[in-house]
Amino acid sequence: MSDSLSVPSLHSSATSYDPAKPPPLNYTIKCNRREAAIAVFFILIFIEAGVLPLILFYSIRWGAHLDNTKNLAIITSTVGTYSGYKLARRSWYLFISDSSHQRRPLGASRFGPDAFTIQISLGMTGFFTPLVIGSSLSPASVHTVAMSLSCFMIAFCFPLLITGIWPHKLKVPFRVSSMPPYTGLPPAVYTIVEDIVAVDGGGCVEFRQAWRIRYEHSAIMRRIVRITSLWWGASGMILAGAFIAIAWTTPDDVGYGIGWGLPWLWAIISAAMTVWFVNKELQREAEEWSNPDVHKVFSLHIAQTIDEEKVAQEVNEFNDSNV
Asked: Which residue ranges run through the membrane (predicted)?
């Protein structure tokens, strides 16, 4: 989640639109120190929910020789500080700040949460429930606390899996980010990208429109979104179940290390694979854009306000400017 939240201008793009290539997203992380902000965010999250719990547990257990109840109570009190701050900051930008109307989903009211807010809240609930329960028991349960990251994986990855299996088939009676009620949901990676870039990355409503247009006009982009949703959803659910099973069938020292270490290994490997796959597919998309099977339109049926329609028209005019 980048701290660089400046509002971009559609007409300040450094590159002009080439009609032989896909519509541009008009957004880059290679400006305003966004790359550094993203790196700092992931490093601090990794320290908070990966490195710190492992160092504290084994140093207190083997060095200070405190019992598990005191050990896990100390760990629980330290986890969640930075992530809580980032979620609060994100809520400020989305709901309260003067520019919140530029960051909210298309057609959403002022206090309508985006899909990522709901999904990350479910994940954090899954994370803190075993953490708090396990450390509150007397004596504390190391096996229960070791489930924290795995439960986060299950809660966060389940929407990715089901929307990837049935893209645009599932409908819910409430708004999901820019998708109106009872509209077929795209694979969840679509809303994750839209919401994080628009809110945390400062892409605002301009990015939401450009992302919608790119997704609707590119069969390869839709394939990228679906495959990445399926990979993260399926691998996360399966491995989380395996991590929980191992954590409960091994000694405390082993189970705790597996529960707090292997989920990060999965995330790092999956992220590297995702970057490689997306870059490969984007290159293919650019090379094969003239193919009718690639430049194939699909409508998301997103309802928009008059102001949002004006922004959509501006994005389209920008994309067509050099035709």
From this structure: 36-60, 111-133, 145-166, 230-248, 254-278
pLDDT in tens, 148-196: 999 999 999 999 999 999 999 999 998 889 888 898 999 999 999 999 9
Question: How far, in Å, are 206, 214, 220, 274, 322 from residue 288 at the CA level?
Answer: 26, 15, 10, 21, 20
Classify residue 26: in a domain, yes or no: no
Return mean pLDDT, the chain.
87
CB under 8 Å to 99, separation ≥6 — which residues?
5, 7, 93, 204
Whole-angstrom Cα distance, residue 286 to residue 182? 33
Distance, in Å, from the CA atom of 300 to the CA atom of 242, rounded to the nearest integer, reads: 36
User: How many Cβ atoms from other residues are within 10 Å of residue 278's Cβ?
Assistant: 15
Flag whether 15 is in a domain: no
| Structural domain for 210, as ranges | 33-314
Number of domains observed in the structure of the chain: 1
Q: Are 68 and 135 in contact (CB under 8 A)?
A: no
Q: Which of 86, 88, 81, 77 is nearest to 131 (CA)?
A: 77
pTM: 0.86
In 137-218, which residue ranges form alpha helices assigned H by DSSP? 142-145, 148-165, 188-195, 204-217
pLDDT, residue 66, reads 86
